[in-house]
Design brief:
mainly alpha, 7 helices, 52% helix
């Protein structure tokens, strides 16, 4: 069994009253300052870079709205768009399209989720796959490694490379575009005693 840890939780306990208060302050700012800021942003984008500047500005807004939707609709999306073991919606730093793309790759979309994915693909080819947020994926600064932990009858599976004295857990660094199962399979075929 392969378990992957998903951590998108608050680092410390939060007073619920603070969350409620901050929510209402943000709604107030949204209603009263967003329209003015939006008009200024549109004009600024047009004046600075023309239609390209406007497109860049509107893209940033659409990504932020998408991230808000990912958090605001997370429970509904998790229920309707993905299977029980799918990648969960709700990461505040990720767009709906990114989470949709992750589930597309994992094959954990429901029929409704697949229909939404196909609709987006008809508008923008491979939209959800191209929208996967690689800032939270492995990069040159982050090494994606796997370890297989198998415990049977209170015994832990460990391996020892040929010519070495120390035992280790099976696993290793994941290669680009390689699934977890492929990585563990490749590492298990190496020379072990």
């Amino acid at each position: 069994m392969i378990l992957k840890k998903q951590v998108y939780k608050v680092d410390k306990k939060v007073n619920p009253l603070i969350g409620i208060l901050l929510f209402f302050i943000s709604i107030f700012l949204l209603i009263f300052t967003l329209p003015l800021g939006f008009i200024y942003g549109v004009l600024h984008g047009l004046i600075q870079k023309g239609i390209v500047g406007l497109g860049e500005y509107l893209l940033k807004i659409s990504i932020s709205i998408d991230q808000l939707g990912n958090v605001g609709m997370q429970h509904l999306l998790n229920l309707v768009w993905i299977k029980k073991d799918g990648y969960k919606f709700g990461n505040r730093d990720e767009t709906i399209s990114s989470a949709l793309g992750r589930n597309h790759k994992l094959g954990t979309l429901t029929k409704f989720g697949t229909a939404i994915d196909q609709l987006l693909d008809s508008i923008d080819k491979n939209h959800s796959l191209n929208s996967i947020d690689y800032y939270i994926e492995p990069s040159s600064e982050i090494i994606d490694q796997l370890v297989w932990i198998l415990i049977v009858d209170q015994k832990l599976l460990a391996i020892r490379p040929k010519g070495k004295n120390n035992y280790m857990l099976p696993g290793g660094q994941k290669e680009l575009k390689e699934s977890d199962v492929m990585t563990l399979s490749r590492k298990s075929k190496m020379n072990w005693e």
